[in-house]
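Two quick folds needed for the group meeting slides. Do the first one here.
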Amino acid sequence: MTPHGPTDRTGPGAPTGGTDGPDAAAVRRRTLRTTAVALGTGALAAGYLWHTNPHQPGQFLLPCPFRLLTGLLCPFCGGTRLAYDLMHGDVVSAFHDNAVLLVLGVPALGYALTRWLADGLRGRRRPMKPTPRGNAVLLGIAAAWLVARNLTG
């Protein structure tokens, strides 16, 4: 044990498996396959969104089910417009579309996916399961953002 805690990485979110053996090779193959499918799907969606301006009415885009049912903006409302604006280099408009998703969500997702990919390529399996504390933080931020954006209009 070091002064900053144990040296082994065990517990929720810790990578499992080693970098040796057939299990590590299977983890690497699965990571590469999952990454290729995600990148391909993302590229198709980005290609469609590039030519579909969500700021203009009449575009064929999926509506927010929460907003359809309640009339309120959910914490993710504006995410499609945010992605469109970022792809077109308009960071100010992206911020206005959904500030919390841009400032907190995009970097957090990038960090989590980078860690998952790096561990997968090393042959370690890292399940993407948030801890109870992580869930509480995510739900607290989402609830506060939902209330704030619906009260301010």
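Then this one, please, same format:
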Amino acid sequence: MRLVSSKNLSEYFIIIGCGRLGANLANTLSEEGGNVLIIDRNKEAFRKLSPSFGGLSVAGDGMDFDVLQEAQIDKTDVLVVVTNNDNVNVMVAQIAREIFKVNRVIARLYDPERECVYREFGIDTICPAILSVKEIDKMLLKTGSTEKVDKTACELKEETK
């Protein structure tokens, strides 16, 4: 699976959070020739990066303005925030959009009900719970056990009001 098209090779990606998802994303983008910087509070987390990882790693708090400025967040094309804490993810995403004017911000969130908040700020989201529901629904469709469900948490929340 290609994440970076040939026209995007010069794009600068910042990833905040070097857990399984962050490290895998950083490795993939790096292997595809992307310009990648990854930030994590725990310098031991960088052991998850591939030996062939060609990007930069910064040990620091992604909510710290000095760390973000050191990472040159104002020059990033894409910021991806994938820590294991929704509050951190929304805070960093909002700082990036509102203060540093980052055009493309993607954040993982565990609580699907928070998706609406992210959308209001123009932040793209990835929610494991919603993705899992959609994938299970696809599997059930193959067996004819359910109708297609393709709604976001925001749409489902509106229906219950």
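Slide caption for protein two: The mean pLDDT is 85.
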